[in-house]
Amino acid sequence: MLDNEQKAMKEVSHMELTYRTEGDYLVPNLTLPAEEPIALGRYARLHRHYLKQHRPVLYLHLKTTCTLNQQLAEVEQTAGERMELLVRQMAAAQGVTEELKAKDQMRWVGLMNNLRQAAEEVVLCEIVYA
Predict the structure, then answer these.
(1) CA 129/CA 29 separation, integer angstroms
(2) What pTM value is reported for the model?
(3) Across residues 98-116, what is the average pLDDT?
(4) What is the secondary structure of the chain as a DSSP string?
(5) pLDDT single digits (tens) 63-90
(6) 124 exposed, middle or buried (CB, 10 Å; 0-12, 13-18, 19+)?
(7) Do residues 89 and 81 touch, judged by C-beta distance below 8 A?
(8) Residue 102 CA, distance from chain mean position
(9) Interhelix angle for 68-94 vs 42-54, to 10°?
């Protein structure tokens, strides 16, 4: 059995791959190129977790092609921009203004919290978990 492994190693060595023995199998020593580390925000972390749990093939494809961090950064940026836009639009539609903030701060805070929660639900459904 050892002769067969040595022959296989000699044949494979021309392709510049190295192998390790795991039981009766030769397993290639593969490593991914180093990706530039990025700081992940909340939406990027949620998207990464979603990909790992519900789309493992896509997650592995993005990981092996070294495009995962790039996609996570795009998701984070897009989700943040969409949140800001939705909150502004919803506030304008419901009449939540700076005047209301000056008159009745507690009501303004409550309304803004409701608007942020509603906008976040939309962002999570449309961007993070899509």
Answers:
(1) 34
(2) 0.73
(3) 96
(4) -HHHHHHHHHHHGGGT--EEEETTEEEE---PPPPPP----HHHHHHHHHHHHH-HHHHHHHHHTT-HHHHHHHHHHHHHHHHHHHHHHHHHHHT--HHHHHH-HHHHHHHHHHHHHHHHHHHIIIIIT-
(5) 988 899 999 999 999 999 999 999 999 9
(6) middle
(7) no
(8) 39
(9) 120
Retrieve residue 13's tokens.
């060595």
Structure tokens at 34: 């180093």
Separation in Å, CA 125 to CA 52, 78, 86, 88: 17, 13, 14, 19
6-19: string of b/e by CB count within 10 Å (b at 16+)? eeeeeeeeeeeeeb
Per-residue CA distances from 20 to 16, 27, 29, 79 (Å): 14, 5, 7, 43
